[in-house]
Write a structure and sequence with these properties.
Elements lengths: L11 H10 L1 E3 L2 E3 L10 H15 L6 E5 L4 H11 L3 E4 L10 E7 L6 E7 L8 E9 L3 H12 L3 E11 L4 H6 L5 E11 L2 E4 L6
Parallel strand pairs: 3-4, 3-7, 7-8, 8-9
Antiparallel strand pairs: 1-2, 5-6, 9-10
This protein binds 1-O-pyrophosphono-5-O-phosphono-alpha-D-ribofuranose (PRP).
Length: about 200
């Protein structure tokens, strides 16, 4: 890996916004007013371009994410790298066969969710990079990695806008030999406060 590439350097504009605007709901960090419910195109564009700059090292020729909240950042990363984006469908029962499926627990919904990808779109030998909005327990990303590998693809890396360091997602994904890049790391949620890994230039 390039000595100049820091895959987990906290991205100061995002860290600042999470600290000043993030709210807490149990174990959930809520920043859905700019990231994944109401979306601010300019800010997501900026975040995804920083993620794309880091992930370009892995030379993907397809970006893979999961419906729904991963689509916005993944699409912009894909556009920045001039490659297609594929999303695993959650809500459709009619993914064209042959398809590859996994069941995962949804952290925000508390139910089992089915992910499905048509093997028309993830092909043997493709260089895949996973992109998603959040990395928590890593179950979604691990399922995407397994599905891509089952399709014969080479999973080169994974990038997330926000990482919850108090969950085991990073360890889970790195154990699958996939390097992880994140733009902001939440160390813990305590007494209504979000504690972030600080950007080094601050
Ligand atoms: O690392 P994990 O523990 O798998 O958690 C991360 C996942 O949780 C969210 O998806 P979720 O299914 O909750 O919501 P969504 O349908 O809005 O994407 C998020 O978008 C990630 O995909």
């Amino acid at each position: 890996m390039s000595p100049h590439l820091d895959l987990t350097a906290p991205y100061a504009p995002l860290v600042r916004r999470i600290e000043s605007e993030g709210s807490i709901d149990g174990q959930m960090l809520v920043i859905d007013h700019f990231l994944n419910h109401r979306i601010e195109p300019g800010f997501i564009f900026e975040l995804a371009h920083e993620l794309a700059r880091r992930l370009s090292f892995f030379q993907p020729n397809v970006i893979l994410t999961a419906e729904a909240s991963g689509i916005a950042p993944a699409l912009i990363v894909a556009q920045a790298l001039s490659v297609p984006m594929v999303y695993a469908k959650k809500y459709s029962t009619d993914v064209e066969a042959p398809s590859i499926c996994r069941s995962i627990p949804s952290p925000t919904k508390g139910v089992e969710t089915r992910l499905a990808i048509s093997t028309r779109y993830i092909r043997p030998g493709q260089r895949v990079v996973i992109v998603d909005d959040f990395l928590a327990n890593g179950r979604t990303a691990a399922a995407l990695i397994e599905m891509a590998r089952e399709a014969g693809a080479d999973v080169r890396g994974a990038g997330f806008v926000v990482e919850k360091r108090f969950k085991q997602g990073r360890e889970h994904i790195e154990a699958l030999h996939v390097p992880v890049s994140t733009l902001a790391q939440v160390e813990r949620l305590e007494s209504g406060r979000v504690v972030m890994t600080q950007a080094r230039d601050e």
